[in-house]
Amino acid sequence: MIKQNRRDFIKLSAASLATGICLSPLSLLSAKPLPADKSRLFTKVIPATGEKLPAIGMGSWMTFNVGQDQGARQNCQQILRAFFNGGGTLIDSSPMYGSSEEVIGYCLEQLNRQNKHFSATKVWTPFQSSGVRQIHDSQQLWGVDKIDLMQVHNLLSWEKHLESLEQLKQEGQIKYIGITTSHGRRHEQMEKIMQTRELDFIQLTYNVLDREAESRLLPLAREKGIAVIANRPFQRKALFHRVQGKTLPASAQAIDCHHWAQYFLKFIISHPDISCAIPATSQVAHMQENMAALRGAMPDEKFRAKMLNDIQGI
Questions:
Q1: Looking at residue 10, what is its pLDDT?
Q2: What is the pTM of this model?
Q3: Where are the alpha helices (DSSP H) in 48-87?
Q4: 18 Rama class: left (phi>0) / alpha (psi -120 to 50) / beta
Q5: What is the SS3 string spanning 97-166?
Q6: CB 135 within 8 A of CB 127
Q7: How far apart are CA 265 and CA 65, in angstroms?
Q8: 45 near 75, Cβ under 8 Å?
Q9: pLDDT tens per residue across span 273-302
Q10: Is the terminal CB of the chain with fewer CB neighbours within 10 Å at N or C?
């Protein structure tokens, strides 16, 4: 397959939107249903390089912050095993998440997956020099040769840290750089940074109820050729509380959904401008439900509108 760079991706995106032609289901701009081939993973394309990325990743906020508790570490190891078995690659963390990076590194070593995944972590400090140390510390904690994606966490001291990240990327020490926000905060500032700096990724909150990013940030990401990671896909647990005791709509069968987690996640990753969603869980069974969203048919635009209407009606 010919590798696609950011410029080619943007041109192809513009042509697709202008003609109304949908691209392949494996492209970032596709929301067409996949064939009902359960062995086929739903992937998206990273615009900067053309690299394919499974559209469900894994968050680690709270769930992997277990310290030296050996029982909890074993549970994390089983969760990560289920993640990989389900086809996942992108693992997201941060120095802010306590012992999560260390525990991820431990689990990767136990599973012999140190360099067989997509590592995404963050720099989170007000000081540039401390940020550079954090980056190297993260690499050691994960036990990897190179961090795939390094992000500025919640835009903290973003000017200083993007300088460092750009330099480290140029030196080949990290592959991709990006910025993050959550809870719908600081969208205007994120938009300005997207307009003026060359980013590979942004991370923001997007789910069936939190859709503020649709108005400006997602279209801008498409225009600029920036991949988008969706955090808080379940509003922590609020979406599950909303549907507690409710059965899935009968129409969910059309997109091969058997659990609410699949339903919520397929809504997110079928958006043409979302590259990956990063649900977090501390239960193996829930991880298996999450990863099931990578397979089967995906909702098109019309079906997504129906899903939205169904959820808003609950």
A1: 63
A2: 0.89
A3: 70-85
A4: alpha
A5: HCCHHHHHHHHHHHCCCCCCCEEEEEECCCCHHHHHHHHHHHHHHHCCCCEEEEEEHHHCCHHHHHHHHH
A6: no
A7: 24
A8: no
A9: 999 999 999 999 999 999 999 999 999 999
A10: N
Superfamily covering domain 53-312: NADP-dependent oxidoreductase domain (3.20.20.100)
Distance of alpha carbon 170 from alpha carbon 155, whole angstroms: 21
Phi (first) and psi of residue 254, to 5 degrees: -65, -20
User: Closest by alpha carbon to 117, among 137, 77, 150, 87?
Assistant: 87
Q: What is the mean pLDDT of residues 246-265?
A: 97
* Residue 152 · residue 161 · CB < 8 Å: yes
49 contact partners, CB below 8 Å, separation of at least 6: 3, 4, 5, 6
Which two three-digit tokens encode residue 224?
Answer: 């600029």
CB distance 219 to 230 below 8 Å: no
Whole-number Å distance between alpha carbons of 260 and 241: 11
> Confidence band (pLDDT; 50, 70, 90) for 8?
low
Q: Where are the domains positioned within the chain?
A: 53-312
Tell me, what DSSP letter sits at residue 198?
Answer: -
